[in-house]
Amino acid sequence: MVVVTAVDSGILARFPTKPAAFHSGNHGAVRPPATHPHKSPPRRLATLAALPAAAMVSAEAGIDRVLWTEAEVAARVGEVAAELAADLRRLPDPAVVVGVATGAFLFLADLVRRVDAPLAVDFVRVESYGGGTESSGRPRITADLKVDVAGKHVVVVEDIVDTGNTLSCLIAHLQKKGASSVSVCTFLDKPARRKVNVQLVGDGKFYRGFECPDYFVVGYGLDYAELYRNLPYVGVLKPEIYKKDSSN
């Protein structure tokens, strides 16, 4: 499948194409993701408007360009899972993997299925954005864990870490619950927006999928106003989408 948009309408769609089209001539092959666990190389962004028009409207209207494709996401998640699994297998007891709802649900599901180590899974909900695009800086836990984390190694799974406010709040909460150590595994890391120096607990470690440039990104669990979570790739949202809403 190829994601396309009508040049004039901005409506996105999918249409089938031959696999060879991705590898022929001057178009070049799809590049594999970075293998370094902490930094991904700069990428040339594909503009969807440059592709031909098609007939079937999809949920992708409003996406300006693709930042990481579905294949690149899957490959990178596999690499992070392998690193995490190697560390968890060294622990004397099963770890507790805590997903931060709702954005981390796809990343967590794909991650734990690739981790060959004993673990428990739970979710916590921490709110700091509301319906906007900027973190309020005042996160609060609105749905707590059911699993007891006292004396356990906890791995917090996030969709994205930007300011660090939400993550720091959650780590402090887990520490109060008696977690012996806290690691963080985030799909995207946006250090350019960091406001808080995140402190891990005990022998905790920081894992990340991709270092994200300072764009408003959606897809693969990340949303804008609860939309776009179901996209299989990570895309940059058109500024007019969220600027229009914030001006109302």
SSE topology sketch:
Layout: E1 2-5, E2 12-15, E3 46-47, E4 63-68, H1 70-88, E5 95-101, H2 105-112, E6 119-127, E7 140-143, E8 153-161, H3 165-176, E9 181-189, E10 206-211, E11 217-218, E12 234-237, H4 239-246
Parallel strand pairs: 5-6, 5-8, 8-9, 9-10
Antiparallel strand pairs: 1-2, 3-4, 4-12, 6-7, 11-12
Helix pairs in contact: 1-2
Task: Give the % helix.
Answer: 10-25%
Main sheet strand line-up? 7-6-5-8-9-10
Give the overall silhouette: globular
* Whole-angstrom Rg: 19 Å
Overall mean pLDDT score? 81
SS-derived structural category: alpha/beta
Percent range for β-strand residues: 25-35%
Q: What's the order of the H and E elements?
A: EEEEHEHEEEHEEEEH
Report low-confidence residues grouped into runs of 5 or more: 1-44, 46-56
* Strands, total number: 12
Distance between the termini: 36 Å
Please count the helical segments. Answer: 4
Largest sheet: 6 strands, mixed
Protein model, in words:
With 248 residues, the protein is α/β, with parallel strands linked by helices. The protein contains four helices and twelve strands; from the N terminus they run ββββαβαβββαββββα. The strands form three sheets. A six-stranded mixed beta sheet has the order 7-6-5-8-9-10, sandwiched between helices. α1 packs across α2. The radius of gyration is 19 Å and the shape is globular.
